[in-house]
Amino acid sequence: MPRPTPERPVPQYVLPAVTADTLVLADFRPRGRDRPPGPYRRLLSVPGARAFTAGSLLARLPMGMFGVSAVLMIAARYGSYALAGAVTATGLAVTALVAPGVARLVDRHGQARVAVPAALLAALGSLALVLCVRAGAPAWTLFAAYAATASAPNTGGMARARWARLVGGDAAALHSAHSFEQAADELCFMLGPVLAAFLCTAWFPEAGTVAGVVLLVAGMLLFTAQRATEPPPVPHTPARAPLRSPGMPALLAVCVAMGAVFGAMEVVTVAFADERGHRAAAGVALGLQAAGSCAAGLAFGALRLPGPAAARLPWCVAAMTALMTLPFLAATSGSLLLVSMALFVAGTATAPTMVTTMTLVQRRAPEGRLNESMTLAVTGLLTGIALGSATGGWSADHAPPAMGYALPATAAALALLLTLTGVSGRVGARPSG
Questions:
Q1: From 283's CA, which of 15, 142, 247, 431 has a CA 20 to 30 Å away?
Q2: Tally of CB atoms within 10 A around 337
Q3: Number of alpha carbons in the 13 Å side-chain half-sphere of residue 115
Q4: Between the CA of residue 212 and those of 130, 143, 270, 276, what are the distances in Å?
């Protein structure tokens, strides 16, 4: 370590060189009298972090595109939101079944060896859906094609696993990393619907899905090329499955309810905007919801909160429940502008809730099965999104679109009930053994 001089201050952080077999650890403690950089700048100063983050963002952007793109192109070609909602719900349900197995393979064999072929298979499924819709094929082919996209790997989970390896010994840095990744998720959900709606309406109905395929493959190739930060595979995982960890089933039930909030909100918002002749504006409205969540996530990650995450979760879910009533109240006015503003405000409760949930999931994860455990949480979300999409599609076809906003508010209330009865007293203790 160099001696401090007026011309040569002490370095702020110790960041050792990275090789393929080196575990990178960053010392996040500020030194010297200068003001230390912020938590996110410190995270991105870890060698290799910016490269895998760029690939992760590209690969995750289609998350916010595929659902909206599928709803728009199927509704445009077949004239049924119920069919569009059912197709996307089926694909998400299959993903909920397949994703944990893909994540288990990632843990055992490594991210690069599994994620690339899994992403390519999902891309082929999306292209098959485009061809079926373009040709006006029977409805059952849409379900089969969209189900083939279930192999898409959980890029967010893999990125979080990398952060756990890089800064896992620093609780404050790990909290910032989880918040950063949640904000990245929300950024993708903010930009994805806007981009998908623009492409599907300005070009042709299948353009959003085609663009999503290109981004998924390119981003996954870039992400997996960063081998220095990739967690080592664990061929022999512990016998205990993540579902057997104390508190995990209750957390997954909460994830299902929260997923229903997101799934119903997406379909109902598209239908609400379409009824008013502004289908493309649905992407903007959903993007504003994600923008509120993204901003709240970044602010939440910069905080140093006292107490355990288990004690914070009920408060986060309660705030989400209260704010999810705002879009319903705004929809009764019939104004898409008011609904968009309400979605932005409601979104501010999403990221803190998800960050806290993912923190608890990581603490419950058995050793060597981190990516699988995080993917189980995503599986719960996808299951809820599938239920919410199907219910929202039915509501859009059989009830006034404004009434559909009661669905996400109800799902949020269910998540609060599950949190109070199943999570609060169970996830605070560490598992034995």
A1: 142
A2: 11
A3: 32
A4: 12, 19, 19, 27
Residue 295 burial by CB count (10 A; 0-12/13-18/19+): exposed, middle or buried?
A: middle
CB 65 within 8 A of CB 192: yes
What is the SS3 assignment for 394? helix
Rg for the chain (alpha carbons), in Å? 21
**What is this structure's pTM?**
0.66
- Largest Cα separation within the chain, whole Å, is 75
Q: Which two three-digit tokens encode residue 194?
A: 């806007």
Residue 31 belongs to a domain: no
Q: What is the DSSP letter of 80?
A: -
Half-sphere exposure of 383 (CA within 13 A, CB side): 17
**Each residue's pLDDT tens digit in the chain (433 positions)?**
444 444 333 333 333 333 333 333 344 444 445 556 677 777 777 777 788 888 888 888 887 788 778 888 888 888 777 788 788 878 877 887 888 788 878 878 888 888 889 999 989 988 999 998 888 888 888 888 888 888 888 888 788 878 877 776 666 777 777 777 777 776 776 677 778 878 887 788 788 888 989 999 999 998 888 887 788 777 765 556 666 666 678 888 888 898 889 888 888 888 888 877 776 677 778 778 878 887 887 787 766 766 676 778 888 889 999 999 999 898 888 888 898 899 999 988 888 888 788 777 777 766 666 667 777 787 788 778 778 877 887 887 777 777 888 888 899 999 898 888 865 544 444 333 3
Q: At what angle do helices 207-224 and 49-60 cross, to 10 degrees?
A: 160
The answer as to whether 184 is a domain residue is: yes
- 12 in a structural domain: no
CATH number at residue 148: 1.20.1250.20
9 part of a folded domain: no
What is the C-alpha to C-alpha distance for residues 197 and 202, in angstroms, rounded to an integer? Answer: 8
> Which residue, chain included where needed, has tokens 């098959």?
128
Dihedral sign from CA coordinates of 130, 121, 110, 365 = positive
The two tokens of residue 14 are 């110790």
Q: How many domains does the chain have?
A: 1
